[in-house]
Task: inverse folding
């Protein structure tokens, strides 16, 4: 389904990359950046970067380049990152609890406000200032807590069932760490470690 | 750089997805599969799937479909997964140690054979049957142990330095969990949680 903003999906994915580069530039005290600097960082062409940034309207000046903070703000706006997204972690085993302690999750408009686990031993524990609740309380807490996104980190065999509960509870998007494909009618972004390793193995075999 | 096998990169990425679907089909006892079943699973067109699989030579029969085990074997061959890849985990903090305990890493041709951490407190501990070694032993162990790939899970500020050590030690590809872009001349596959969340937020905003 094409986004109503009219920005094509591949462009959105690249804008997300450019944002990371702008954050690095800002952190290093570089307040302007050229399209060719951005392009070089990712191995894209200059024309590609200029075309992508063109989707955001007028953002740079010829011969001067882009103001990093202004451009970052424009990208965040286009990507709907100029707001806070409340997150629930579902499954607080090894991966889930590691994510709760991951400092980058705290920044950047994403806030972990709830955590759930089916294991009664884990319920009641506190991880990174968030209490782990029993899975039965999911619907109640998600509905009451204005939680939009969920990180699903349960074993593969439970993933589909829990995902359906998340949809019923009103969750609008899922970041899926379970190594399975979810059949739900909300956006799902998979984090597929096996696939990333496979891509790496292929590249090592073919590029070297 | 185009792979010498002549399979375009986007096709390789999709083949990796198809492989997951074939594994699911096998697990469910379905021994043949049609291109349209695969296509439906990912929202691709039937023609796209047939074109991708066409890169592997003759793999299916009209009206019958593809034999799942035969097709999976062909894909694994094309992706260089028909061998064992030895892996080192570098950084055994929350993310690194979670990966070491991740059961899927054990299967599928990837084997964690070494782990390293700069923290002297962690060195000597055993995680999932692998001893964590001090970072100083990296070069020696990688060179001696026929280790091809590394999973980099160190804090962002150390990532570039450690990555350079990995290259010197003979590592040929890096799966990078550090939220930073590495400047090295070997293939790097980033696992970018922030980017995945940003894509999810964008899709939730635009599709719903």
Result:
């Amino acid at each position: 389904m094409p986004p109503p903003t009219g920005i094509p999906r591949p462009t959105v994915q690249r804008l997300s990359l450019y944002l990371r580069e702008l954050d690095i530039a800002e952190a290093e005290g570089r307040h302007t950046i050229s399209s060719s600097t951005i392009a070089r960082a990712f191995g894209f062409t200059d024309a590609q970067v200029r075309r992508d940034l063109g989707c955001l309207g007028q953002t740079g000046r010829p011969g001067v380049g882009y103001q990093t903070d202004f451009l970052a703000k424009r990208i965040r706006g286009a990507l709907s990152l100029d707001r806070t997204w409340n997150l629930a972690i579902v499954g607080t085993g090894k991966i889930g609890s590691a994510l709760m302690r991951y400092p980058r999750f705290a920044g950047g408009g994403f806030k972990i406000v709830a955590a759930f686990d089916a294991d009664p031993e884990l319920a009641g524990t506190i991880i990174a200032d968030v209490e782990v609740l029993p899975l039965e309380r999911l619907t109640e807490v998600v509905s009451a807590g204005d939680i939009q996104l969920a990180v699903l980190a349960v074993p593969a065999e439970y993933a589909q069932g829990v995902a359906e509960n998340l949809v019923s509870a009103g969750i609008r998007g899922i970041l899926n760490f379970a190594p399975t494909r979810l059949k739900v009618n909300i956006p799902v972004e998979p984090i597929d470690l096996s696939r990333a390793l496979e891509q790496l193995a292929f590249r090592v075999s073919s590029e070297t």
